Amino acid sequence: MNALPFPRRSIDQVMTEERAASFAKRSIKAASKLDGLKLALSMMDLTTLEGKDTPGKVAHLCRKAIQPADARYDAPSCAAVCVYPNLVRAAKQFTRGSTVKVAAVATAFPSGLMPLAVKLEDARLAIDDGADEIDMVIDRGAFLRGEYRQVCDEIAAVKAVCGPTHLKVILETGELESYDNVRLASDLAIRAGADFIKTSTGKVAPAATLPVTLVMLEAIRDHFYATGIRIGMKPAGGIRTAKEALAYLVLLKETLGADWMTPDLFRFGASTLANDVLMQIARLVDGRYQSADYFSLP
Question: Is pTM beyond 0.90 here?
Answer without folding.
Answer: yes
